[in-house]
Amino acid sequence: MKKKGIIFVIITIAAIFVSLYFDNALIKDISFLRNAILDEFFLGITFASSEIMFSFILTSLFLWSERKRKWILPLWASLAISVIVAFILKITVQRPRPFQMGIVPLLPALREVGFSTWNFSFPSFESMIAFCAVPILSKEFPRLKKFWIIFAVLVAFSRVYFGVHFVSDVISGGLIGYIIGLLVMNIEKENRWGEKVYNKIFRK
Fold this sequence. Notes:
The protein is mainly α. It has one domain. 71% of the residues lie in helices and 0% in strands. It has helices at residues 3-31, 36-48, 51-63, 72-93, 125-132, 134-140, 145-161, 167-191, 193-202.
């Protein structure tokens, strides 16, 4: 990992510890921003950030260029590993969600959404999914880097806005997802396993 990357990780970890201390106050303050327009906007972000939409949009993006198709399997691997790691951490830590603790109310539009499968707050699954794609997208689509990072930040913020995650949950999820994506990308660059599998299946 480059020096800038190490500094970024250190700063992010420090932000996690700071946010842990201010989590309750932060989520209360953010809940005051709620209004009808932002509700609809972040509901749209929530829909777009579902794992199905992520997989479809990103896969379609890489299918557009034949030279980039070898990265589809590493991208799927990043998404799959993020899902597994998120599930393990959730059932291990078992941190209640803010609305479950009565800190902030859950929006009526989300009351019909089941949280039984992912019934715990730490880490934010959506943040992990959004940020795990950043390393590969930054490498293959550098012009989309800023757009995707902004989108990932909006995904993370929406989870706090709706009261389903604390700030420390989304920062932790983003960091863990980014590291997963970085590790998968580096493994692909060294071993080219995704490229080999792709060539074996589609270029016989």
